[in-house]
Write a structure and sequence with these properties.
about 20% helix; single chain; alpha+beta
């Protein structure tokens, strides 16, 4: 009887230890993906052709993000090569005046910004892996926005 109780006790300790280790591993993986500081980019799969027969993505979307604690800030640029239209000021050179600002909520960043076309936009940025993030617009109020409603961006090297 004592051996059985001792064996049961050891098994329970092993299960508890395994759960603690797994929970710590999940937390460390989760917090590691929160820091998405860097440059991110994607282009539409749809191609447009100019008058010379050259094919371009219909839009290109770039983000430059900086994460500190639970806060995120950054700049964006949406460009349409064929029509030479754009939204955002990613390359303005002003390192202190960020368009995008937000914070970590649950498993993603909720961000807000005003587009170059006068819209107040709310979006989320969700880390997928250390090299991929998901962008999704939640709401657009007033004006317009050229940013894609949903995009998967890849981290630039």
């Amino acid at each position: 009887m004592k051996k059985e109780v001792l064996l049961l006790f050891i098994m329970l300790c092993l299960v508890a230890a395994r759960s603690t280790v797994c929970a710590q591993a999940q937390r460390s993986q989760h917090t590691a993906t929160r820091n998405i500081t860097g440059r991110w980019s994607c282009a539409s799969k749809e191609r447009v052709t100019n008058q010379f027969g050259e094919k371009f993505p219909s839009w290109i979307f770039d983000l430059k993000l900086k994460v500190e604690n639970n806060q995120i800030k950054g700049d964006y640029l949406v460009s349409c090569p064929l029509h030479e239209r754009f939204d955002g000021n990613l390359y303005s050179g002003d390192e202190e005046d960020f368009d995008i600002k937000g914070k970590w909520v649950g498993d993603k960043y909720i961000v807000k910004y005003e587009s170059s076309w006068g819209a107040n936009v709310t979006a989320y940025i969700k880390p997928i892996t250390s090299r991929k993030i998901e962008w999704r617009i939640i709401s657009v109020k007033g004006g317009g926005s050229m940013a894609p409603k949903r995009a998967i961006l890849t981290k630039e090297r």
